[in-house]
Structures are given as C-alpha cells and as structure tokens.
Amino acid sequence: MGGLQIPLEHVLLLAATLFSCGLMGLMLRRNIIFMLMSLEVMLNAAALAFVAAGARWQQADGQIIFLLILSVAAAEVAVGLGLVLQIQRRFKTLDMDQVNRLRG
Amino acid sequence: MTVADFQALSPLLVLAGGATVLMLQIAFVRSVSLTAALTVLTMALAALSCVHAAQIAPLQVTPLLQADSFALLFCVLFCIGGAATALLSQDYIRHHGDEPEEYFLLLMLSTLGACVLAYAVHVASLLLGLELLSVSLYALIAYPNKSILPLEAAAKYLVLSGAASATALFGFALLYAATGTLEFTALGQQLDNTQMGQSVLLVGAAMVFTGLGFKLSLVPFHLWTPDVYDGAPAPITGFLASVAKAAVFVALLRLFLDADLFRYRILVEITGFLAILSMLAGNLLALLQTNIKRMLAYSSIAHIGYLMIIFMACITSDNRNLASEAAAYYLVAYTATTIAAFGLLTLICAHQVERENVELHHISGLFWRQPLLGGLMLVAMLSLAGIPLTAGFVAKFYIFNAAVSGHNWVLLATLILGSGIGIYYYLRVVYYMTRRLEQHHVQPTVVVSWHAKALSCILIAGILLLGTMPQSLMAYLRSIL
Question: Residue B362 carries which DSSP code?
Fold first, then answer.
C-alpha cells in the first residue's frame, strides 16, 4: 500500500463534523426537504466513519455496512418524499411549523 | 446452510414468504377480508414455526442471527401482537383508507423487522431489523388518507427516528473503529484491549444508547411520542407502543448483555437516571391529559422507565438472570395490555373518519352501554396500573424483585411513587366509564364485528390468566435463561 495514508482520526473527525452539520441542519431548518437532506448527511457521516474503520482493520465489513446504510437511506428518503408530496398537496406549504396541528 | 439453519430461521422465512404471497395476492385480487385473513394466517404460522424452531435452539445461524429461546419467545409475542393488530384494524382501515390492502403488507413487514431485531447479534442485522421496522411504520402511520393528522405524525416520526438511527449507527462506527468487530460478543471481548482511548468507546456506547433511547422514547428523548401517538391511526399506535418498543428493548438488552456494556459504570448510571426521569415525567404529564391517546403515550414513557430499572439491576452479574426474566415477563404483560387498551380505542374510532382522538367524555358510561368493551378497557387500565390479579401486577412485582436484589433503592422509591401517581389517571378512565349517563348525553353505540369481540375476550382472558396463574410462564422463562 503506497501513496498517501490518511490517519483514522482525521476521517473520524471529518465524519463527526459532517454529523454535527447534519444535526444542526435538522434542528434549525423548518423546510421538510432540507430536513430530509440533513438526515441524509447524518446517515452518510455514519457510513463514512464505517468505511474508515473498515480500512483501518483491513476488513470488508465497513464497506458492506456502508452499502446497507446507502440502501436504508434510499428507502427512508423514498417514504419521506412520498410524505413531502402529500404534505405539499394538503397544506400547500413545506414549512413544518405551519403544518403543526398537534400540540406539544 | 443446513436444514437445521433453515429450521431455526423458519419464523423469519415464513413472514418473508407471507409478505411475498400477500403482495402477489394484492396484485391479482383486491379484497380486504382475504388480505386480512392471509395476514393473520401467516403470523399464526410464523408463531407455530417458533415452537418447531425451539427444538434446536440455541443455534447461531451465520454471524448475524442467533436463534435462542429468548429470541423465539419474542418472535411468538411479536407475531401474536401483529396478528391482533391486523384483526383489530380491519374495520378501522376500511373506513380510513382508500385502498386498505397494502396496509396489511406493511404490517407484516414491520412484524418481520421486529422479529429480526429479536434475533440480532450483529450490527448489520440490528440495522436491517430496525430499519425494516421503522420504514414500514412511517408508511403505516401516514396510511389513513382522509385526515391530515397522520401525515404530520408520520413526517415527525420519520425525521426523528431517522436521526436516531443515524446517531446509533455513528456510535456503532466508533465502536467498530476501536474494536474491529461488529459482532456483539466479540465486541465485548475486544473492548478491553483496544488502543484507542476509553473516551471514544464511551462516546460510541453513549451514542448507541441515545439512538435506541429515542426509539424507546426515554425522557429527554420523548418529545415526539405524544404527537406521533396522537396523530397515528389507533391500531398502529398500539403496535408502535407495544411491539416496536419491545423489539428495540430486546435488541438493546441483548447488546448490553452480550457485549457486557455494564462494565461502563457511568453509562449504566445514566440509564438509571433516565429511568427515574422517565418514570416521573411520564406519570406527571399523563395526569394533565384528557385525550386518552396522549395519556397512554405518556403512560408508555413511564412504563419504559420502569423497564429501564432492569439495566441498573443487571450491574451485578449474578443478578442478570433474574433481571432478564423480569424484563421478559414485563414485556409480555405490557404488550398484551397495550394492545388491549389501544384495541378499544381502535374499535371506538373505527367508524369516525375525521376524528383520530378519543377524549375522556367520549367513553363515559361505556361500561353500561357495551359491557364487553368496557370490560376490556377496565382490565387493560387495571393491568397498566398494576392492580393485583392482572398481568401488570405480576410484571411490576418482578421488576420490584429485581430492583430489590440489585439494591437500587432510589429507583425502587421512584417506581413506587410513579405507580401511585399512575393509579389516579388510570382509575379516572374507569371512573368515566362507569358513570351513569343523563338521557340527553347519549354517545353513539359502537358496532363491533364478531372477530373483534372474540379478540377482546381472548385479550381479557390472557391478561387475567397472566395475572392469576403466572407460574407456567415464569417456569418457562427460568428454564430458558
């Protein structure tokens, strides 16, 4: 294995940064599309951490989990976009604060 | 894979095969009664195949799944819970959805996810089970298309549950980076000889716990619970509160036991602290509700708090068998009771298209108008409150016992205090039900189909039997642990 080696800590730090960005976006954004995108960023940050960890141990497991997370995220977003369509049709807005009918 | 492997996995295979058959059936003939019948039949078959699979348990099938008696017991529970939900939903979904057949397909997939969680001993199977369970639940919550509340509830649940999954996964990634294995048992063995700092491991374990705690709606991760329970269709709320939570709890308990995360004293103390918060917050907030669904949502938070006592009781290793026995009994009793309580709400809501919620005054005098439904709710409420002769009493006594032998006095005091508060709001429901009605205040009679009546009788009998003759289940639990 020649070439540039990236230390595991750096990748984990990057993943943690991405994860926090996603979490911040999820909490601060009110538009449901942006919330779904932030969710995707969080899931992919976890997936990146798995790939980096797999590379450290020279195992394929990390990449397999990455593939699983990819498909799970796709399934989640598919349902999410279905909901987005319904919300747009019923409420004529994608702002979650205006959608809020349930108190609490 | 050998024949024994297939036999051990037969409940999962039956459910997955059943889901395929159901999909084909819907593609060719659209008929709600046929789909519902097939669903119930498949789940009964899956439950029966657990008995068959128990002959060769415990057997590890691939590194992913472990078919032991504990997993099979919960598979039976989840299949019965799923079948009961399917039976209860039939009338409800006919009135609330345009094309109700796919509802049963999603319910079956969700049950399959719960069963996979019960088997899971590897991060990959945990991830797949958890997501199969949650993704089908998003669609199930949003299923009734004649009112707008389910839509909002589903959007909230999707966003928060997705964030919880991502958090748990990130935690697992950190644990994997430190230990180099994804199997729970091997993970536990590697934890001690890792070169990375203890803080990374602790952060990883805490993130896993946070992610799964969100799904269990522990305080302070409980804010979604009342809204989602309120907006979701009543049968699905019952499923969410019983089967989905029990499945996540089983997976979490197995992770802690197999990987021996109890060695992180601070983590376990945090679980104990969250248990206290959940018991107090759940019970106190439930006092303020007049909407029965929201009240049950807060009561479920309190019940998960009672269950979390198990984690503190597990610290001393010789107490673990008693603690897991208590957890198993509690989950069985709690699932039966919750399905009974939400079953009644389902039957009441079944013909009201626009309204999802049931207020206290809607059930006033129910006991005199419809004794069977009143009896179902009475038994469910008494069991939730932990009154003797019901399943809830024995279950709470079990938890009490585990806490005493673990010397968790603070938790024990909170348990007693919480149960005391609980009695008030559970009995308030009973009080409303037994009120004599004035003539001008007549509620419409609920039409109940014969299978719902039969199911109500079975649930009442089951809860009372678990409460009066718990010996056989107790003996069975003791023999498998």
Answer: G
